[in-house]
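User: For a reading group we're discussing how well predicted structures match intuition. Take Pentatricopeptide repeat-containing protein-like. Before you show the prediction, I'll give you the sequence so everyone sees exactly what went in.
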Amino acid sequence: MNTRYSPPFALARRRRRRSSHLHLLALIQPKPTRRHVHTDLSLINVRTFNQRLSSLCRQRNVEQARLLFDQMPQKDLVTHSTMINLYLKTNNLPQALSLFARLPERNVVVDSAVLDGLSKAGRLPEARQLFDRMPERNVYSWTILVSGYCRTGEVGQARELFDRMPVRNAYSWTAMVLGYARSGMLREARELFDQMPEKNVVSWTAMVRGYVECGRVGEARELFNRMGHRNLYSWNVMILGYLEEGRVGEAVELFESMPERNVVTWTSMVTGLARSGEMGKARELFGRMPKKDVAAWNAMIVVCAEEGLVNEVRELFDLMPERNVVSWNAAIGGNVRNGFREEASRLFIEMLRSPSKPNEATLTTVLVAAESTFEVTEIHGLATLLGFGSDTSFGNALVTMYSRTGDLGSARLAFEELMVKDVVSWTSIIQAYSYHGCGAFALQAFARMLRCGAKPDGVAMVGVLSACSHAGLVGKGRKVFESMSRVYGLEPQAEHYACLVDLLGRAGLVTEAEGVVRTMPSSKRDECVLGALLGACRVHDKIEAAGEVGEELIKLEQAGSGGYVLLANAYASRGRWSDAARVRKTMKEKGVEKVPGVSSIEVGTRRHSFYVGDRSHPRVLEIYVMLDEVLLPHMKDVKLLQSFQSVHT
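Assistant: Thanks. Here is the predicted 3D structure of Pentatricopeptide repeat-containing protein-like, as structure tokens, for the group to look at:
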């Protein structure tokens, strides 16, 4: 028999209610006063709740704030406004809009807050609808919408609204001036600036910034000199303007004449000097910085990495008094971009042992440096364990790297597992299929992309055109190329013309390919385009045309060894030895070195690389035996199959 006492239902219910009340009181009372709580919630007014809610919002503690909000017995407009503002400050617009839609009453303050959130998110049509429905508007509401239109480049809409404003303040005028300036309409910006009834430091700085952003630093300085009062931001804008124009001397002069400086000024000056090649002066100035926060150290590491100064990156990184995830990412990324994979891997392992834990940016950087499917799989597994496996940016890189290391199946799986697919996601899978010669699958992915409402960009179109080229789909390729400007508003670039020329050349339509090259804009006729045409001429024995194209190609300053070799081989194939020798001599005189072909094969967890004619590999005999007995017969079978398909399609 169970002898445990069971309280009556009513008493149990009171205990549950009291337990819930105690939990709620714990949220609204500071820790030292949580003992012996016997307070009736009805005695706690809405104002007390709102004060605690405001405190949680100042701490940006969304979870605890929402818990308190949901359990409050009474809520007023202040309660709702506070919670909505927290969601807006933490970039959670959907939750803010959800609460806003359920408001029993509204005022101009909460309306303006949501209007600002929609405007900053670029959702101007919804912002305009809300603005038009607002029963009451103040100068802040009007200015928010004017700024929103200026931010998206809709200066005409902004001006129409600005002219209708019943009352304007300095911020309204400044928003409109900056809108004109950012759109390159400096004459209109200056006219409006001169009409301003009252100008403050923000207005003056906005006009100076407008000139700086348009590269008119002289006029910016003239205006800067006329300013009655300058703040730190004004000085920083002017100094950055000089640095971006490469006028380092004037930037240093202005910097030295500043009455006071902040960490932004110091950091801008140091990084500007470094980017201008004045690394010695940059290090000297960095040493003079009175207070170096972690952001200043990070900026210095980033700029050293950009300049290829990997030793300085490591030295600075080791000297840092404290590091955050950005510091680790900057050091790891700098080594990856400069080809120091082993150092990047060592830093990554060191990071895993440190208090700073990797984020999606770290994992994406390390992933891009992977050289084998094994490494990609390892990083994929780690990302899943850390909770970043479904991140779109990381997933896009995963698709690319699985494809690049030869595992198309895993690339496809990684793509399908993406919760959110953006344009880069679709482009990555299209390029993966194209890279592996699966033209039909690439076109299917492109069709799915369009059905999903994603608008292709120039990179996606390169993938589609390349897929058409490898699959021999001439008609489809032509249509895709023509649709770029006509349907998608994309102007074909050199890489798109190169794909089209390659497509036509592979199909033997050399005359049509020549026509494309002749009629395309000369500014886009680069090494890739001419190289594709030269290759087609050589394959289809159009030696005279090859000679003309090749001679034009090697005149390009950026021409690599490929064009020279193709042209020399084309001449040699027709016995024109003197021409072939002349091309090779020109190549030598210009210091162009032939890049040897390299192949690699992955065995287990190791990747082995070897060059044409290379016998330095320790297992060279096994490699050549494997090539002769296994790989070459398979390659011949593939060649026969491709020939059969080309005849019967």
